[in-house]
């Protein structure tokens, strides 16, 4: 190599250049090994690769990959730490702060989520996604009225924001506003008539409105769309029980037990004819259909 460099007037790379080139090669190797591992679902190995790469160079793309891999393996705290570093490096990047809010939501860390949403709103107060995330944070903090206001703004900014309409409908229903929830449910049904979550909301609205037959018919549709919907069987059984259909309630609760044997951990014993009514009554006393 020295001969050819001399012949063509080249120079040997300095030790510093050699080290720099070697680090660049190692960085690329760790980065793309991490990408390959993540694509194969090997997130533990991907995290190790990304961490090695970041030791060689502080790279925002790799830090983002690392946060995503940490989320995939359920390490939300570590992922939030990486996203905070990204947010500090790019303080005007709304998407990074939104992602921090989403991970905080997964971790049920509503204080961090609210803080992140406040920063995102300060950067772009007319961002429908940020309004939606802020509403989720408000619900987590026990502020449904604030959540409804934020969701209303999100829907105003994006009339096709189905998730915002759905969450507003659920929130209104949890507050006792059956009429308001019914409007959102009907609007959603016009667009997403076969959606399981939309049908569940409408069924709950009809139940709260005292329309048992309509509620049962909607729960029937849910079980047609998703034969494994534990919520639909459990809540339909509750409606049946309230209507005096103990046998029907028992059948639905047995279906719940088939789908999830731990669903009624507080109710012991089998469903014998003698104890059915008491056990079903106990089971349905634990139900919170809205789950909010």
Plain-language structure description:
- The protein is mainly alpha-helical and 292 residues long.
- The longest helix is centred in the N-terminal third of the chain and has 25 residues, at 15-39.
- It starts with a helix and ends in a 7-residue tail after the last helix.
- Helices cover 74% and strands 0% of the residues.
- It contains 16 helices and no strands.
- Mean pLDDT is 88; it is low at 266-276 and 286-292.
- It has helices at residues 2-7, 15-39, 43-56, 60-72, 76-89, 94-106, 110-123, 128-140, 144-157, 162-174, 178-191, 196-208, 212-225, 230-242, 246-259, 276-285.
- Helix 15 crosses helix 16.
- It is elongated, with a radius of gyration of 27 Å.
The outline comes out as elongated
Report the β-strand fraction as a percent range: under 5%
Number of helices: 16
Major beta sheet, specifics?
none
Rounded to the nearest angstrom, the radius of gyration is: 27 Å
Q: Uncertain spans, ≥5 residues at pLDDT below 50?
A: 266-276, 286-292
Q: Separation of termini?
A: 70 Å
Average of the residue pLDDT scores: 88
- The helix/strand class is mainly alpha
Total count of strands: 0
Helix fraction by DSSP (H/I, runs of at least 4): over 70%
Summarize the structure.
The protein is built from 16 helices and no strands. The protein has helices at residues 2-7, 15-39, 43-56, 60-72, 76-89, 94-106, 110-123, 128-140, 144-157, 162-174, 178-191, 196-208, 212-225, 230-242, 246-259, 276-285.
Quickly list its features:
16 helices; mainly alpha; 292 residues
Task: Give the SSE map.
Layout: H1 2-7, H2 15-39, H3 43-56, H4 60-72, H5 76-89, H6 94-106, H7 110-123, H8 128-140, H9 144-157, H10 162-174, H11 178-191, H12 196-208, H13 212-225, H14 230-242, H15 246-259, H16 276-285
């Amino acid at each position: 190599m020295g001969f050819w460099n001399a012949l063509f007037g080249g120079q040997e790379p300095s030790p510093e250049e050699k080290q720099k080139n070697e680090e660049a090669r190692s960085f690329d190797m760790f980065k793309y090994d991490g990408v390959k591992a993540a694509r194969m679902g090997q997130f533990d190995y991907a995290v190790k690769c990304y961490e090695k790469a970041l030791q060689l160079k502080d790279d925002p793309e790799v830090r983002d990959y690392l946060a995503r891999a940490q989320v995939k393996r359920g390490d939300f705290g570590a992922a939030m730490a990486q996203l905070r570093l990204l947010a500090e490096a790019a303080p005007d990047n709304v998407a990074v702060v939104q992602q921090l809010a989403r991970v905080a939501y997964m971790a049920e860390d509503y204080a961090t989520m609210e803080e992140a949403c406040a920063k995102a709103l300060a950067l772009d107060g007319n961002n429908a996604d940020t309004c939606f995330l802020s509403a989720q944070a408000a619900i987590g903090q026990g502020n449904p009225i604030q959540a409804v206001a934020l969701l209303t703004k999100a829907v105003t900014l994006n009339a096709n924001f189905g998730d915002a309409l759905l969450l507003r409908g659920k929130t209104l229903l949890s507050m006792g506003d059956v009429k308001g929830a019914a409007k959102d449910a009907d609007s959603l049904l016009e667009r997403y008539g076969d959606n399981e979550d939309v049908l569940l909301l409408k069924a709950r609205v009809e139940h709260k409105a005292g329309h048992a037959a309509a509620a049962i018919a909607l729960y029937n549709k849910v079980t047609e769309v998703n034969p494994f919907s534990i919520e639909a069987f459990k809540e339909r059984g509750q409606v049946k029980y309230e209507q005096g259909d103990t046998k029907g309630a028992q059948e639905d609760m047995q279906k719940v037990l088939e789908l999830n044997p731990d669903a009624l951990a507080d109710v012991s014993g089998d469903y014998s004819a003698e104890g059915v009514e008491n056990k079903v009554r106990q089971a349905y006393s634990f139900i919170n259909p809205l789950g909010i």
